[in-house]
UniProtKB/TrEMBL annotation:
Leader sequence residues: none
UniProt protein name: ABC-type metal ion transport system, ATPase component
Keyword hit for ATP-binding: yes
CDD domains attached to this UniProt entry: ABC_MetN_methionine_transporter
GO biological process: amino acid transport
Domain of life assignment: Bacteria
SUPFAM superfamilies registered for this protein in UniProt: ACT-like, P-loop containing nucleoside triphosphate hydrolases
Record's keyword terms, sorted: Amino-acid transport, ATP-binding, Cell membrane, Membrane, Nucleotide-binding, Translocase, Transport
rRNA processing found in the keyword field: no
Sample GO molecular function, one term: ATP binding
């Protein structure tokens, strides 16, 4: 659905050049939620603005739904953008318009008949849970309600793709969770492809299928959220499961990190280990998270005893990820 190939974006000011993007390549499949996560200044906003050519790449290819956007004429690009919705961190609502007027705005621009426009606005407000706010103004809304208006407006022209530029950064945790649930619901009900950028790991954890980590304009890690979190050495995994500093072991034991995915997270694995191999198990720390609808558990333990090597082989035979610290 979205293909970004070897994209560079360089800003120049006098003799200075800033490389905001350096050879970025991503593929977002139809119907998935793809997150791009990284710190401020990493290039996230530049990347998402390149997708609909609000920023034109210096080099590289941007294809959306099979269409090469960088090759379009201005008139063709305007039509293509009708199939790409976008929501923003600070909502960008028109304060002089009501909620219904804000949602209707893109339909007015594209020349939709007033009767059809009114019906579409009613449908969209019902979809985002704001039917009772049609005549309210933005100053009368909470942050979460403002973002719901932004989402409804972005969906007005029935886009295939929704771009989210730090869509929850201005919201409190409760509204953040509600907006993320709404986005996931829209993704499932409408088959909407969503590309979002964020610096919040909770956003990735709650709704993303795939993720890319960006730093200094380069993608340094990408893949399935579940797969990356299940591998202790990845940046994403370390952000969600911060490593525990294991104590020095003077007695010959092994410090081990064990990752459980899915049903294995609820199994009595350590109890079986003790019975089968007569090893001592000291739990140093651990937690269980739900990532992409799957439970992922991480335990850091100290194993001691004559059969530690056999115990490690057994753990791996169960399909668990086992790493020595």
């Amino acid at each position: 659905m979205i293909d970004i190939q070897d994209v560079y974006k360089t800003y120049t000011s006098g003799e200075q050049a800033v490389e905001a993007l350096q050879g970025v390549t991503l593929h977002v499949a139809k119907g998935e939620i793809f997150g791009v996560v990284g710190p401020s200044g990493a290039g996230k906003s530049t990347l998402i603005r390149c997708v609909n050519l609000l920023e034109r790449p210096t080099l590289g290819s941007i294809r959306v739904n099979g269409q090469e956007l960088t090759a379009l004429t201005p008139a063709e690009l305007r039509l293509a953008r009708q199939r790409i919705g976008m929501i923003f961190q600070h909502f960008n609502l028109l304060s002089s318009r009501t909620v219904a007027g804000n949602v209707a705005f893109p339909l007015e621009i594209t020349g939709v008949d007033p009767v059809q426009r009114a019906e579409r606005v009613r449908e969209l407000l019902a979809l985002v849970g704001l039917s009772d706010k049609a005549n309210a103004y933005s100053a009368q809304l909470s942050g979460g309600q403002k973002q719901r208006v932004g989402i409804a407006r972005a969906l007005a022209t029935q886009p295939d793709v929704l771009l989210c530029d730090e869509a929850t950064s201005a919201l409190d945790p409760q509204n953040t969770s509600a907006i993320l649930e709404l986005l996931r619901d829209l993704n499932r009900r409408l088959g909407l492809t969503i590309l979002l950028i964020t610096h919040e790991m909770n956003v990735v954890r709650q709704i993303c299928d795939q993720v890319a980590v960006i730093s200094d304009g380069k993608i340094i890690e990408q893949g399935s959220v579940v797969n990356l979190v299940a591998r202790p050495g990845t940046l994403l995994s370390q952000a969600i499961f911060p490593p525990i500093e294991a104590p020095l072991d003077a007695n010959g034991g092994r410090n081990v990190t064990i990752t459980f995915v899915g049903d294995a997270a609820g199994q009595p694995v350590l109890a079986s280990l003790v019975r089968k191999f007569d090893v001592d198990v000291n739990i140093l720390g651990g937690s269980i998270q739900t990532i992409g609808g799957q439970r992922i558990g991480r335990l850091q333990v100290k194993l001691a005893g004559a059969q530690v090597d056999a115990a490690l082989v057994y753990l791996r035979s169960l399909g668990l990820n086992v790493e020595m610290n």
